[in-house]
Amino acid sequence: MSGLDLTLGAARVTAAIVDIESVSGDEKALADAVEEALRPYPHLEVLRDGDSVLARTDLGRAERVILAGHLDTVPIAVDSTGRRNVPSLLEGDWETGTLRGCGTSDMKAGVAVQLVLAATLAEPNRDVTYVFYECEEVEAERNSLGRLIRTRPEWFAADFAVLLEPSNNIVEGGCQGTMRARLTFRGARAHSARSWLGENAIHKAGAALRRLEEYQPRRVEVEGLEFREGLNAVGVTGGVAGNVIPDECSILVNFRFAPDRDEADAERHIREVFAGLDAEILVTDSAPAARPGLHLPLAAEFVGAVMAGMQARPTAKFGWTDVARFAGLGVPGVNYGPGDGALAHKPDESVDLGQVVRCAERVRSWLSFAS
Ligand SMILES: [Zn+2]
């Protein structure tokens, strides 16, 4: 028996699941607890797949939405006195205080909101699919959301998706795409004492670095949100020995692109930027961007419900997130969740419990019939 009591509210459930360590690849204990906690609810169909858990209502509603979150965290931090950032530590009270610990913001607070709603919303106004997945904080190939979408597509047929990653309860639309490309410059090796006999590949690479230095990244509005692009060198390799003219140098560049480009456009752009240089350009990996889709009726209604009365406006998502996977399925999605992304992965990670409580209330009201 896991002892996870989902009726205690999202703040206390956050603490309870932070206290069950779930570093990527080691989510079994938490997945067991989540599965056991959800199984008793007759309004949910629950499925276990690896260390991921899926649950859904099936009330025949006209629309279906997905609420998704990852169960894993980055490794537990240990400070110089040997103190670990798990179990969680409460400062203040459960309504307005701060909860410290690994995964509080990224993203057990969001997962707690999902769990509490799954347990207590027996009659939502739309059918809801809850996705709790593993291995988000590691290489993309291990991310179980990709696997689940491939192997259980029927669980991902939906009209809208909310990924409860930390966004300070502000709706973040879409996401940037990302592409890495390797530029390889070749020369001729020679003894550096007779350098005129060689051709220096590192010097040739300088031309590419100058283009990057002069590069003016775009700011572009897509469906009402401003996205900022960036093209940067993120690695350089080259050199043979201290007395050898190097015959090869490569620069790894990373292009973060706005959702008005697809991957083919992104690659074309990279090739244009470096056109005319004596370099071989190879795309090593990429992931598509996602359009915000906030003009779609369901998304607009969601924004209205969860951001009513707030000064803040929805913003663009900087970074690649799993909403792009939903976009790839034709399911528009947003990032919206309690917690601060700037605190994610830090040893002093924490979450503002007021945000957790408000997030749960607002998503609940969005999914409830007007009373
Ligand atoms: Zn996360």
UniProtKB/TrEMBL annotation:
Keyword Metal-binding part of the UniProt annotation: yes
Pfam families in the cross-refs: M20_dimer, Peptidase_M20
Peptidase M20 dimerisation domain segment(s): 176-275
InterPro entries reported for this sequence: Bact_exopeptidase_dim_dom, Peptidase_M20, Peptidase_M20_dimer, Peptidase_M20A, Succinyl-DAP_deSuclase_DapE
Swiss-Prot/TrEMBL keywords: Hydrolase, Metal-binding
Gene3D superfamilies associated with the record: 3.30.70.360, Zn peptidases
Enzyme class: hydrolase
EC number, UniProt record: 3.5.1.18
Tree of life domain: Bacteria
Protein's name in the database: Succinyl-diaminopimelate desuccinylase
Source organism: Catenulispora subtropica
Classification of source organism: Bacteria, Bacillati, Actinomycetota, Actinomycetes, Catenulisporales
Name of the gene: dapE
